[in-house]
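Database export, one record per block. Field names are fixed; values are copied verbatim from the stored entry.
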Amino acid sequence: MFTNLCADHVTTRLWRKMHEAPEDIINSAKVDSINTLDASRVTEGKLTGDGTLVISELLTDSRQTIIEEGTAFFAIKGSNHDGHRFIDNLYERGVRIFFITDKYAADGPFPGAAFILVRDTVEALQRLAAWKRRRFNGRVIAVTGSAGKTVVKEWLADVSGRVWPVTRSPKSYNSQIGVPLSVWKLDNRYSAGIIEAGISRPGEMEKLQKIIEPLTGIITNIGDAHSENFRNNSEKIKEKLKLFSSCSEIVYCRDQKEVKDALLDNPALASKKLVSWSFNDKNATVLITVTGQDDRRSLLSVKSENDSFETFIPFTDKASVANAATVIAAALATGVKKEVIAEAMPRLSPVAMRMEIKTGINGCILIEDYYNSDPGSLKMALEHLRSFSGRNPVLIMSDILQSGRDDKSLYNEVARLLETMKIGRFIGIGPVLSAHSRFFPAGSTFFESTPAFCAAVGKETFSNEVILLKGARKFEFERISNLLVEKIHQTVLEVNLNVIAGNLTGIRRHLDPSVKIMAMVKAFAYGAGAAGIARALEYHRVGYLAVANADEGVDLRENGISIPVVVMNPEPGAFDLMIRYNLEPEIYGFSLLRSFISACSRHGLTGYPIHIKIDTGMHRLGFMPEETENLVKEIVSSDQVRIASVFSHLSAAENPEYDDFTRRQAKIFTEVSDMIRSATGYNFLRHLLNTPGIMRFPEYQFDMVRPGIGLYGIGITAGQGFRQALRYITRILQIKRVPAGEPVGYGCSDISDHDRKIAVLPAGYADGIDRRSGNGRGGVFINNRYAPFAGTICMDLSMADITDIEADEGDEAEIFGENITIDTVASLTGRIPYEILTSIPARVKRIFSSE
């Protein structure tokens, strides 16, 4: 009934031979490499330059810090970016192979380089990956669906890895660009490759199918995710099933009627080997029954035509049980013996979908990545580690489990990777790593177990470093995190960097492509944590950052931020510090201008960039329009400074009632900036719009805009496709029963006529919870239920009424986040979101997460 994976290599090679087109014979003797001449033929491009360069790596993101020899860059154009702009910089950093769509990008002195002009660089990337796929001798398994793809991929790799070497897509690389990057990693040292594939609109899956050409297909749960471009679920299912046209078997859940019907109604797919699983349909190939559950695990009975066995998984939620059932059916279909499956399932680990960044002890930054620990994902994590400049990079890594690879080959590869990525310090944990310590650089240290590391290493061991924790769940690296994290305060502000990146993209959609962005990160980035936010914004190529004072700017520079930083409220006493850290001042008055010119003169500087603020009606800081002539005279007469930008600030861009006033401000700004440009004789950037202005007045974009709190999906952006990026949570310290008639909190102000169950929370007004939200005016969410505050808010504690809520000590309480927005919390106490965010003190730990 089921296929043996290793024996199926013959089928793979036969299929590959039958499907090779003439150009696919190119370099067929070389499995893992292709030169630029042959690559130009595969991608139907025109080669200019050296045709003998060998391609070893594919690159689509110019921000990658480590460039290896043989890296080929694909200059992709999008609505708000153009990879061709970064060719000069990448050439200086060592890239010599470029796939381009703009023939003029090859102009210039690029000795030793190869340029391949193609119709579409994404299509070229996909063609090259398809070429690589056809040289892979192992079985390719493709996973698609609406939800559970990544979990099934990871768990199946863990189970199958006990039998044969398996490689897999890194993280959730399942897009039109992510899939070819994943397929390029296929390597004949592995017997199987598991590739995740996702789509968001019709027509995409056919392209992915040509790249992956799977022999085994798996479809997971079908739900509402990514449905906006499909008429209904039926259309989405049919599109996803196009991935399986080359498969010999397809694994699916028979309980999903729409999926079953779509398979059986498609003659080409119905004729294949359909391996179904079900919780209740005895006609399924694999019948799985949940025979029992407790708080920590689910007992499973598995029956197929030839096999039956019992096992359990360390999960109880429905999604995990369904994902585990899919893994069991897929493992059986690919020839994994039932004994291996039964032993592997209890050892499944939660799949962490996010990489978290925390503040560590002694000035360190801690990066937690418990996603997976194969060499592919390790390289991605190390690339992220290297992006933190100014600190020594440290890797703490556990044994790599269930890789199926020969240990000597595997850890030799890891050691070479550390050398290539220039990792300053390595700590290995686990018996296998310790046994292969000879491969690693001098100065590396090794421990047999996590407890051995924790016992031997003191907090003084680490200082001003950036530390990546990359460990399999078995090794309980949470213990190391608890040792190295700065605070264990249970109240934390979670910052989702992926959501911020998505909101930034949403803002860019409102802008002309040439318009730059100055992101406001003043006041500790509105309380979110300036360094972490600034690092993410720099990565996503904003043009400028803006802070309130020089100290905030210095903090960014000391955290490795290198892009221009504008100080909005500079003080003359800080000018020398600003110049030392290359910070650019806002100039809003004549005395400030003269003081800064004098400071530049003392340092022997000329042409130092300054930013001129014009008061167009807000009447806060800024030169008045009638002062323009004298302003220009002083600037033109000085060689020490040069205008980088002229700007103003709108008073009421969010309020339609004052639109005439906003337009008057814009008119004044245009006239004044035109006068300055004419008088100085040179160009500079002009910017006027904050977040509300970006949304409501696109005609005033000028050269740059200044989004602030909108980057977090708060305020005017709500309901316009933007998401809230911040989540403020704490945990229940204690639960107590309070009899009727008894008060809660200071002042005996909260007395009830019925018995109550009260949760005590370790967060109070010293943590930013407004005292006015006490006595039921505000509240928190606990286990997806609203719990009003009971009694007054204390300095370090608050109480919530959970009489009708099932909860335990240690359960999470959401102050704001997914269930209650910051805007809602603000309205309950008569404040604005800015106040709430900036009132969260530094003692509250910020956790930055990204996929």
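Remark 1: The two ends are 38 Å apart (CA to CA).
Remark 2: The chain has 28 helices and 39 strands.
End of record.
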